[in-house]
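Weekly puzzle thread! Below is a chain. First person to post its structure in token form gets bragging rights.
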Amino acid sequence: KEIEDSEIVVRMQSPLIARRHNAEDNKDTYYTYDNTEFSDVLRENAQTFLDKLNINISTEGFQVIPIKGRKVVTNCFGRKVDGNIGIYKICGCPELLNVMYQAGSGVRRSEGHGKWEIIM
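Winning reply:
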């Protein structure tokens, strides 16, 4: 399904994991939907993903806004981390939204996290 809008409403099919990595002390901080930095961290995660794949798409205006969020604790490589499920509004250029729809959002996508379906 091709996304043509710059705003969509999605339901998470697997936990969305937002993580900020501190290279200096090699520590990860995980963010839940109720944290004020949640959307910024997800934008950073998207930018890192695009940079690694040499995909030149702007993350300007990319936002993930909780409509009905819920925190869950999930396993990642044998460790328990905070994840997010529920319903979210995602804003950004359609090109970016299509890439995120195909690949998933947030981090730990290879374990199946960050998968969503469009409901509006």
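Puzzle host: Confirmed. Bonus trivia for everyone else. The two ends are 13 Å apart (CA to CA).
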